[in-house]
Amino acid sequence: MKTFLVTGGAGFIGSNFINYLHNNYEDYIINLDKLSYGSNLNNIKIDSRYKFIKKSIGDDITEIIDNTDYIINFAAESHVDRSIASPESFVSENINGVLNLLECIRKSKNDPVLINIGTDEEYGDTINGSFTEQDMLKPSSPYSASKAASSLLALSYFRTYGIKTMVTRTSNNFGKYQFPEKLIPKTIIRNLLNLDIPLYGNGRNIRDWIYTEDNVRAILTVLFKGKYGEIYNISSNNELENIDIVEKIFDLMGKKGNIKYVSDRPGHDVRYSIRSDKLKNLGWKPEYSFMDALKLTVEWYINNEKWWKPLIGNNTLSEEPWKLKWD
Question: Is-above-0.70 flag for pTM?
Answer without folding.
Answer: yes
